Amino acid sequence: MSKIIPQLVPINLIQISSISSILENHLLDKQNELPSEFVGNTLINNGEALAKELFLVVQKYVEQGSPIIVRFVKNVDRSVSPEEAVKASGIKFSNNYPNGVAQMPRGVGSDVEVIFFQIDNGQHFLKNETVLEEYEARGLDPVDPYTLIEINKENPAFLSKYKNTTQWKDINGLFWKIEFHLFFTDPHIFICPMDEESRKEMWFAGVRKIVLKS
User: N or C: which end of the chain has fewer CB within 10 A?
Assistant: First the structure.
């Protein structure tokens, strides 16, 4: 069976209306617990933050059990150096491989659709060749590290829920990977050669095999 990921149809107005109706019914059911004056103040002072949190709740339930996760990244800054890009993320990072970091590709395009997937082939550790084959089977290329840095920078909680990674080849033909996940309890970035196998719990980040719009 083909693993190619088709073009995804976004949420439609009927579904948006259904979510709104469900929320409306619950608000009406609990309206005595929400004083109108304080609700009004909340909408004035924190309405945008409330909307963003409500969206994240919907997104969490939609992604539960989903074989893929989709993120759209806007305004990726590709003008900075690789070291600056990593530092700007605000995520802890130990630069044990400066040569590899220096050759990290910048990628292209300011707005990028990123598709995350997991590999479930019954193996706990995944060989590098297997990872590349799984990208190819889905019609994807590994996303550039600048874009993946931006995703984890915008939403620090993302790497806590989804250990994520991508890879690239340097000018000498050596494969490198960048991983985002917790190290004990702290968010951390790891950049290293792909001489170690990947763990199956990783979410691999890819882009469709098309030319990205800049």
Answer: N
Give me the DSSP letters along 97-145: -HHHHHT----S-SSEEEEEE---SS-SEE-HHHHHHHHHHTTEEEPPH
- Give the CA angle between residues 60, 108, 181 to the nearest 5°: 40
pLDDT (average), residues 155-173: 91
The tens digit of pLDDT for each residue in 29-76 reads 999 999 999 999 999 999 999 999 999 999 999 999 899 999 999 999
User: What share of the chain in percent tops pLDDT 70?
Assistant: 97
Question: How far apart (Å, rounded) are the C-alpha atoms in residues 46 and 29?
Answer: 23
The CA distances from residue 196 to 87, 100, 126, 154, in Å, are 25, 15, 9, 28
Beta bridge pairs of residue 73: 112
Count of beta carbons in the 10 Å neighbourhood of residue 89: 19
Burial level of 144, CB count in 10 A (0-12/13-18/19+)?
buried
According to DSSP, residue 160 is labeled: H
Which residue bears the tokens 């305004």? 75
DSSP state for residue 33 in the 8-state scheme: G
Token pair for 124: 């706990």
